[in-house]
Amino acid sequence: MGLLDGKVALITGAARGQGAEEARLFAAEGAQVIVCDIIEDEGRALCDEIGPAALFQRLDVSRPEGWQKVMRVVSDRFGRLHVLVNNAAICKPTPFSAEGLDAFEAQYRVNQLGPWLGICAAVPLMQGQSGSIINIASASGIKAYIGHSGYSATKYAVRGLTKVAALDLAPHGIRVNAVLPGFVETPMIAEILSRNSAQQQIARLPARRAGAPRDIANLVCFPASDLSSYCTGADFVCDGGLLTGQIAAQEG
């Protein structure tokens, strides 16, 4: 038996990176997975790879009408929703003084408004059953980094949103938790990881490596499953020790 047998799960930003690994793992654990993204070709290819357990839906998480359309499909096809993973995010590292309104607002709309819209859209299909919402925050929602004002601001906000939603939705049987990745090798942060300073930080992590998308997917599977039935409002950190501190650089 799989950890997610019989569950219907919707994952945003699922065409690649962490979201794609979450979709693969969820399907392997017995869930029906709705793969949502604006990247249609890769999203549909992922569903072809996974097979009948996956369904692609184009979704711009920053648009309420997009959420409404997708939830109608979920309702018509499955009649219920057990798991929502708000994974979609963008990161535009820029010095504070040069970021500009457009870049800051773009990150706000995807990273912060998107999860809020997703929660609002999912609740009607989750009420009266054991529902689980997982918001993908970030270590940047605890520790600040130079040039990440928009990204860090939204990820701090996602943690706050998670805790308030956990309180408000508890009477409806819905749990809400956050997962906080550190440096993870995904297309979104490939440019960041290519910078020398980031490579130096990774070399001094206790884990001595960047995370893999499957590392995050493995953790996300826990709050999605019934094994976490007593967990809500929590921050689950998966960062290779980033927030704990740095170790001495290796010599030679």
Structure description:
The chain has a seven-stranded parallel beta sheet with strand order 3-2-1-4-5-6-7, sandwiched between helices. By secondary structure, the protein is an alpha/beta fold. The chain is globular. The model has no long low-confidence stretch (mean pLDDT 92). It has a single domain (8-185, 213-237), classed as NAD(P)-binding Rossmann-like Domain (Rossmann fold, 3-Layer(aba) Sandwich). The chain has helices at 17-28, 40-50, 64-78, 100-126, 149-169, 190-193, 196-203, 213-224, and strands at 8-12, 32-37, 54-58, 83-86, 131-136, 174-181, 235-238.
Instruction: Give the rounded overall mean pLDDT.
Output: 92
The CATH C-level name is Alpha Beta
Number of strands: 7
Helix-strand pattern: EHEHEHEHEHEHHHE
How far is it from the N-terminal to the C-terminal residue, by CA? Answer: 48 Å
Percentage of residues assigned to helices: 40-55%
Write out the strand line-up for the largest beta sheet, numbering strands in chain order: 3-2-1-4-5-6-7
Domain count, please report it. 1
CATH architecture: 3-Layer(aba) Sandwich
- Approximate strand percentage: 15-25%
